[in-house]
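Hi U.,

Before I forget, here's the chain from the pilot set. I'm dumping it here mostly so it's searchable later in email.
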Amino acid sequence: MKKIMLMIVVLALSLTACAPVATTPNAQQLDEIVQATFTALTAQAPTAPPAVTTGSISGNLSFPSEGIPPLLVVAFNSETGQYYWVQTVQDQTTYQIDDLPVGSYTVFAYALPDGKMVGAYDQFYVCGLHQGCNDLSLIEVEVQAGVVTPNIDPGDWYGDPTQWPSMPNDPSIPNLEVGDETAENGGIAGQLSYPSSFIPAMMVVAFEANSESYYYILTNENSSAYQIDNLPPGTYFVVAYPGGDSSYPGAYSQAVPCGLLATCTDHSLIPVEVKSGEVTQGINPGDFYAPPGTFPSAPLR
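Structure:
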């Protein structure tokens, strides 16, 4: 019996010696354990990127002159009236307005610094700016999320600037020259004629005498009268261009009050005074009989 008990004790001691012994981790091991635990706790599943809710509009720029002045290109939201803009530099030929909320927009370009000349993206431009293009309605541009809508070219510089939205008077836009809104502009009006059996469509231009600025209106075929509004007070010369062509201009010259007779040989332009809040009447650009080169060329061709 004693011999059996001794063998049991020896076997137990042997098994104890073979069992793994628990050890206390050192400082480096503790740091590794803590770091692994922290990583496991802070690990997160990849999150989806935020949904795109804006798009862009881009296009080509033009101007009825030898060069393209600095422009303010503006997209007006058709529903909210909010506007978004980009400013271009001299002779820049393309633009892009980013971060536009999804929706419908109309697009205009304003010649800086005063925005008196306005180009629009409308049916007249898409038609080719030809005399037979009679639809002057604006084109609604749809902006989609994450998409750049191209070929939106505000190139119709031939419409009446007063029919389009004025350039935004926004102090955050640099290099703007905004006039005194309290000053009241005037206008020029008169009768149209042409040495033919009909009166062609015309571009009637008021040239400011003391600067390079000019204002114009387009008339339809057989229109017998015109009126150019929103003219700053000052002195102007008035010339009419059939079809917008410089080949056969008619002007308000000394030959008009003379009666346009063969003996009326003075074709010098008559200065027209525009006063604040008044429309100067009786300015009839009917002198189509002056020698070629007498009157200024059409500024938009």
